[in-house]
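Contributing new records

If you add data, match the layout below exactly. Sequence lines come first and carry their own label; structure lines follow with theirs. Keep one chain per record. Anything else will be rejected by the validation script.
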Amino acid sequence: MPADLSAARVKEAALIALLRSAGDVVVGFSGGVDSAYLACVAVEALGADRVTAVIGRSASYPEEQWANARTVAVRVGLTVREVDTDELADPRYAANPSNRCYFCKSELWSRLRPIADAVGAGVLVDGTNADDLCEYRPGARAAAEHGVRSPLAEVGLTKSEIRALSRERGIPTWSRPSSPCLASRLPYGTPVTVERLRAVERAERVLRELGVTGDLRVRHHGDLARVELTSSELDRWLGARDVAELERAVRTAGFARVAIDLHGFRSGSLNVLEGIVRE
């Protein structure tokens, strides 16, 4: 959390001014930390009748995150629509190249743009934050091609600032771990299939039920599941009995072998392995 929130509050004021100048908005709404905060601030700035949140649902979108998104929407009186996206039908996406996210986001924004036009929204927005601009994000090109704006990044709000401001506002997502799409758990070149996505989702769910907290990823390497935990969780679970318990839980999701990654959780670790970004 930022030690001094004064700078974050200045950025939030700029965000409110930006949204008010935009008029009605449609928010690409995953229910994660960033899009939940953005939607809540938009409702404050514009009123609930001028904000439409749209969830794109597909096999790569975790059910737990959908439930979180609906909870936040009800809490703030946010109008939510859902659209089905079918990126898996695109062989360019299903092949899982390193720019997979471009094809996914192209599909998403092609579904949301007509909704924004139909409701007369001046702007279609996403939850990209300032930290994201420093990462490998091929989906950003798709957003630009569809005229999507990123207000959080535009005013310079970082993830830690968004969490702190969300906490101040009582937005329940402030402390939730980040949860990118399930396809991000598959190494590039491993075809994206519903079966593989469901296996990852089941494995992460049983680990949560077992009591694993914080950031968590189950990386899919064929019959091997590579489990990434935060450093504090690694310390907690590294006793021989506890590791065996973790491994048994993951095997129930359909994996034959389980490896606990001793490097711990690293956002984008598959990008590191592929040499796309440096660690």
